[in-house]
Each structure stands twice: as structure tokens, then as C-alpha cells.
Amino acid sequence: MNYASDTEGAGRTVSEMTSHGGKAIVLQAEVARAADVQRMCEETTHVLGAVDVLVNNAGVLQCEPFEAMTEQECHREVDTNVLGPILAIQEALQHFPASGSIITISSIASENPVPLSSLSAATKGAIDTLTMALAKALGPRNIRVNAVAQGHTETEGTHRIGLVGSAHAQQMVAATPLGGRFGRPEDIAPVVVFLASDEAA
């Protein structure tokens, strides 16, 4: 379980995993830094053995008018949302055995962006294209590459930027086919588990 800054949250997640019989460790790494990603993979393989699944779940988002977007914010979102998965995949490929599964969390924003999300939506578009290209390139090596394009989902990030509970959020929920609420991480996790499993082969 890698984290950028939420030590406590990562610890809670690992405790939950181990309490259900799993084996897990907590690692801190900035996914946009190659040295951090390398250390993350090396420590993981040292403790847990060969890596054959990578889930790219790191992501950042800032909703703001396009003309207010700063160079700094562009670098932050592109570095975390696009460069991060690229570096993680490159490193994981060095540790994968004969087969593996790469799963990246994307978003419907690449096809249906919400107002004030042009930069984040663009990064998800890049991830979708990267996923399709790598699926073709790595498939012959018995490495599956998939993206989970989640809908409007209630996360720490959407709470932080004030999206959940806003009038705009109510409009988004109303337009959701199943209606009634935002998605939740626990809605997405079973899909990721399936894609990581042998059943997805």
C-alpha cells in the first residue's frame, strides 16, 4: 500500500487487509519520482516476493476555470496522473514474472468531462490512450493492461475540493443512470480485484 502523504489512512488500509488474512506493507513514495517508484517496487518484492499485479490509483484533481490554471498545477496533475503510471509500469515490468496484470484507475471524464475539469479530463484521456497502446504492446508477453473508467465517485479528493454536496454534484448525481448517489470506492474495488485475478485472463 503506497501513499503520498496520508500515513494514517495507509496504515488503516493495511490493518484492514491484514485483519482479513492478507499480507501487506505500508510504503511512502511520490509516484512522479522515478527513484521513489524504484524503491517502492524493490521494497515490495523484498517483503512480498515477485510482483505480478500493479494498480495505478494515484491521482490529483483541481477544479478551476481554464484561464486560471497555473503552470504549477499543470505539472502537478500531469506528473501524478500521467507520468506516475508510466514510471510505475516501467518499473513493474522489470519485476513481473512470466505474466501479469496492470490496472489503472481512469474516469469517464475523458469522454464526458464536467465543467472546470479540463486538465484532469485531459490526463484521463492520456491514461486511456496509454492503456490501449500498452494492452496491444504487452499482450503478447501475457501481461494484461486494463483501465477502470469510474463514474462520479465520492473520494477524499472530491470532498477536499468541495464537489460532494454542491449544487453541481446534485446535477451530476441526477444525470447518473442508476441515480441517487455518487459512486464509492467499494463499488470499484471488486472490478479491480477481478481484473487482477486469473479469472480475467
Low-confidence stretches: none
Strand order of the largest sheet: 3-4-5
Provide the CATH top-level class of the largest domain. Answer: Alpha Beta
CATH superfamily of the largest domain: NAD(P)-binding Rossmann-like Domain
Rg result: 17 Å
Please give the count of helices. Answer: 7
How many structural domains? 2
Helix content: 40-55%
How would you state the average pLDDT, rounded? Answer: 88
Oligomer classification: single chain
Write down how many β-strands occur, each being a DSSP E stretch of 2 or more residues. 5
What's the CATH topology name of the largest domain? Rossmann fold
What structural category arises from helix and sheet content? mainly alpha
End-to-end span in angstroms?
24 Å
Care to describe what's here?
- Helix 2 runs parallel beside helix 3 and helix 3 runs parallel beside helix 4.
- The protein is mostly helical.
- The model has no long low-confidence stretch (mean pLDDT 88).
- The protein has a three-stranded parallel beta sheet with strand order 3-4-5, with helices on both faces. The protein has a two-stranded parallel sheet with strand order 1-2.
- The chain has seven helices and five strands.
- The protein folds into two domains: 28 residues, no CATH class; 170 residues, NAD(P)-binding Rossmann-like Domain (Rossmann fold), CATH 3.40.50.720.
- The longest helix has 25 residues.
In brief:
49% of the residues lie in helices and 12% in strands.
SSE map:
Layout: E1 2-3, H1 7-19, E2 27-28, H2 34-48, E3 53-56, H3 71-95, E4 100-107, H4 118-138, E5 143-150, H5 156-160, H6 167-174, H7 185-196
Parallel strand pairs: 1-2, 3-4, 4-5
Helix pairs in contact: 2-3, 3-4
